[in-house]
Automatic annotation (TrEMBL):
Pfam families xref list: BAR
A Gene Ontology term for the protein's cellular component: cytoplasm
Stored InterPro entries: AH/BAR_dom_sf (IPR027267), BAR_dom (IPR004148)
Entry-linked Gene3D superfamilies: Arfaptin homology (AH) domain/BAR domain
UniProt-recorded name of the protein: Endophilin-B1 like protein
All copies of domain BAR, residue ranges: 14-83
Length: 89
């Protein structure tokens, strides 16, 4: 039941964003202007996320030096399946 409510809430949010975007493009409403400081912070957050993801992927290579296991982990990650590690910590 919760998943249906969550799906409905996400659909409503997506619909309202689509309506707002359409109104902005058609000129029936004003586009929400973002503060320059906010734009800078958003850009900084995107860069931080990018570099953090790169660091995490490089750290995985150090923690798991076996290339076969790394490839297997990569495929399981892409398939959204959780792999049980043979050596629990």
């Amino acid at each position: 039941m919760k998943s249906i409510k969550g799906l409905a809430a996400e659909a409503a949010t997506a619909f309202s964003r689509a309506v707002q975007y359409t109104e902005e493009k058609l000129g029936t409403s004003e586009k929400t202007e973002l503060d320059a400081q906010f734009d800078g912070l958003a850009l900084r957050a995107d860069r931080t996320k990018h570099w953090t993801e790169r660091l995490v992927s490089r750290t995985d290579a150090v923690l798991q030096p076996n290339p076969n296991t790394r490839v297997e982990d990569y495929f399981f990650e892409k398939l959204d399946k959780k792999r049980e590690h043979p050596f629990p910590n």
